[in-house]
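Question thread 4412

I'm putting together a teaching handout and wanted feedback from people who do this every day. The idea is simple: show students a protein as raw sequence, then show them the structure tokens that encode its fold, then repeat with a second protein so they can compare. Below is the first pair exactly as I plan to print it.
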Amino acid sequence: MNFPKPFYRWRPHPWHGLETGPEPPSVLHAYIEITPFDLVKYEIDKETGYLRVDRPQRSSSQHPSLYGFVPKTYCGERVGKLMPEAERGDGDPLDICVLSERPIARSEVILKAQVVGGLPMNDGGEADDKIIAILVNDNVWGNVRDIAEVPPVMIERLRHYFMTYKFVPGEEQRVSIGPAYGRAHAETVIRAAMQDYEDEFGG
């Protein structure tokens, strides 16, 4: 029997088995872990590739966008060096937030995402950048190409979510987020994360 190429007899691991994107670092694949409708923090299980429940969200805030990661990326030494206040990368795949006008309620889907910028999040001394992207061919957001074209209120919502989603009353806040950066720096972060992946796992 002739199978189409590429063909996977078994489900590929979302982090290691999918391609980074059709035109990295500008157009990426985003593997979605969390939708704006989720009140539970889901996260990829690095060993099996399935989603696991990380924790119920303590606060009432919901993620303002689709949220996941970019396959075959790793936040290691190179990513850490791009954030002066950070001591290292966080050792995870690069996070990505994808804006879409139409509600997408399902997770564990793969999207094509146009990179427009990012948020430099420092989580306890670790670089944990949040790339911001637009769903390719989106009828409302589709022509956006840089963070300056995204309404400031959307950036505020993303910033507020990431500043509060780990908040526990009585515990010290360990998260800080600098000013949003544009597409050029976001692509630099993505290239660094792709190189860190090669260093950590091979090509």
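The second pair follows. I'd like the answer to focus on this one:
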Amino acid sequence: MTVPNLFTIYQEAEKRINMNMRMTGQKNIRTVELFAGVGGFRIGLEKINNSDKRYDVVWSNQWEPSTKTQHASDIYCARFGYANHANEDLSKVKVSEIPEHDLLVGGFPCQDYSVASTLKNSHGIIGKKGVLWWEIYRILEEKKDNAPKYLMLENVDRLLKSPASQRGRDFAIILASLNTLGYGVEWRVINASEYGMPQRRRRVFILAYKKNTKPYKTLQTNSSSDILAKDGLFAKAFPIKEVKKENVIAAELSSDLVDITHNFNKDTPKQNAFLDAGYMIAGTYYTSKMEVNFNENYSVLGDFLQDEKDVPKEFYISDEELEKWKYHKGSKSIERVNKTTGHNYTYSEGSMGFPDCLNKPSRTIITGEGGASASRFKHVVHINGKYRRLTPLELERLNMFPDNHTAGVSDTKRAFLMGNALVVGIVEKLGKKLLEELE
């Protein structure tokens, strides 16, 4: 992707920002962005306007192993510059090459986090090869006393329930490994639309704080119900209704990750160990159900659409193609044969709302959103008597990205990148509250 002169523009902007900071005494919160994608965390953090502190991304990494062309990394560099950005396999990056930083952020993949060696082993732990959680662990462990004080991470909400045969085991491994490194942890499943944002997108966000930081001390000194509903950083950024103490589940984690791998939740494998709100301190975790407490305006899909005169004609659906879309969106019952066993079975699925409602937040954007072919899960809107798909710019808006942030690649790839992205507004809200807690 050709990006004329943007690197020079980026450098000059950085010089002006740094000069202004020296003049005003503003403090840099040195930030590293891993699994950066097209920069959702960075956009959210850099939108925050605070007179005393600002987030400064000092290093970033984006690598897509399954493709030769690195579209996400190309877009990231086009928007933020090439300085201090690594487009290479994170497992091959030496920790010594990563600058010292205060905050580490990233949306790491949901994988199998099991380990093959105990923490008591002099060689440390050995996680599954290619599993990127262990790259985060490697950075924190090798940085030792210089490890970041704060982490802000994002994942799909099924992380709290995986694997299906041992629900919660993978998340227990994450919590226990952070505990051994001296962190306290908060987590919350957040549906962006429930806090006034334009997309129904449920994700689990994780905040971790090193010992002796202000947020860590909050977890140490307050009651579990107060942390979950009032005093914790998530409670301040994303309010929920009162949590009664008797509804909080508390349990200890083993310090042996191999033990967790083999034995966590073995007695009740179908029961959820971790609920939508929770925290962990000193090896004990506390978790509860929650109810959102939000009384502000809600966003709806119709507010984020382009003017129809600006929508390219290829996004409109012809009358002939419309029947295919209606079929995919409708309920159906189909007789099928299992290719392995030869067993006959009936495949059924219910109908989906068609077209998408303009007066509600959008459904979750998926990576297969792009392309003209009819699909059950792609968005379709009905405006002025015409049906059409959503444009890349509209998908960006639903993730609260700047208009045309992903311009420069195909429309299908832009849709894919937005399906992989996060809702920027969540990061912005969390970042604001975290800044207030920094000493």
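Top answer:
Good format. For the second protein you could add a caption like this: The CA atoms of residues 8 and 184 lie 41 Å apart. The longest helix spans residues 6-24.
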